[in-house]
Amino acid sequence: MTDAANMIFFMSDNHTRNVVGAYGHPFVQTPTLDRIAARGVRFDNAYCASPLCCASRAALATGRYPHQTGFWDNALAYDGSVPTWHNRIRDSGANVTSIGKLHYRSTDDDNSFSEEIIPMHIVEGKGALIGLLRATEEGVPPRTGPREMYGRSGIGEADYQRYDRDITKQAIEWLNREGNRIDRPWALYVSYASPHPPFAVPKRLYDLYPPEDMPLPVQFTADTRPDHPAINHVRWVDNFEEPFDEEWVRRTVAGYCGLITHTDEQIGEVMAAAEELGLLKTTRVLYTSDHGEAAGNHGLFAKSVLYDHAMTVPLLMAGPGIPEGSSVQQIVSHVDLFPTMVEAAGASLTEADDDLLGHKGTGNQPPRFRRIPFAIRQGGQLHAPRRYGQIDLSRRNAAAALRSRVGPTGNSRPGNNR
Q1: Is 103 helix (H, G, I), strand (E, B) or coil?
Q2: pLDDT at position 410 over 80
Q3: Is 417 part of a structural domain of the chain?
Q4: Among 165, 60, 161, which residue's Cα sits nearest to residue 104?
Q5: What tens digit of pLDDT does each residue of 14-24 get?
Q6: How many domains does the chain contain in total?
Q7: For residue 416, is it within any domain?
Q8: Which of 28, 55, 93, 295 is deepest in the core (most CB within 10 A)?
Q9: Backbone torsions φ then ψ of 389, nearest 5 degrees
Q10: How far is CA 125 from the centre of its chain?
């Protein structure tokens, strides 16, 4: 993937990796994402850098982990002070436009886009300040909002879905206005608010997933869920200590699946417009999400922990130079996308980017080994991160991982197709 091409980067919020048809989910309907996977590459072991919205989005933008940038909480959002992949693309003279949810600090900051269209940032540039307080039963009270928000799952509609439709409309208008006019490769970042809770969806989508047919999550009951102080604290803070009954859980899972299908439909409308304009032959497409969702597993909802349900994300790429119908088994992270995006746009990295984990460096530095934590797997009690492993990340951005898994003709090597 060396020749520059247009890029449409689809981003969603709160979409765990295994609830996608292309990743083997038995019934969730994601035909658009499935087509992107069939046209390109599916990364089977992709992880976000943090199971929190703002921290994850900052890591994806900067190619650096939260401990490197200080953007580690939903009250400490990206503020334009650290270079981003869109920085490098814009600095090359190309157009890089964002449409929709960014979840950075403020539009008043230079977030390194050519233009921000209907952006969503943290409230008043401050965000969730309560998250900075370490709640205790003797001090700060738990939050009632999360349980109430998930309790709204079912037939209905939330402001986020109306916002999603506005994002789709603006993206289609941008493609019609600029897609064939700009004389060099451009990047369009289309970022949806769904499938973030509340999981309220129109009846036509809810009816696709009858609650009585929804499988129950693992370890969701009071007698089976992990009894670990850290997890118990998360439940207490988010007001999930009281066990859920089966009806509540099944309704929530049904709503989540419906909201994922809604998100897939929005992406499908943008893809259809790009195809009608004849852009897909010259445009790469990427899809991922900022983090996952527990959806009742281990007696939890939302994210904020290092279980796979919170840390794993879909990562799909398709378009010029990307082999069709392939899968990559190597572990990749959102921080690997910085050099990949810059390369895909025909832009250049700088010496300031030499510390990126997915980059070999601009100078004559030897390959570096970085110690990175492995995310905690689902099942059983919560443990500390399983181990730290030395992984040579000097060349292991997403593009390099892709190239290492496909032959010189672009065909998948044996065992990589699903």
Answers
A1: coil
A2: no
A3: no
A4: 60
A5: 999 999 999 99
A6: 1
A7: no
A8: 55
A9: -120, 145
A10: 22
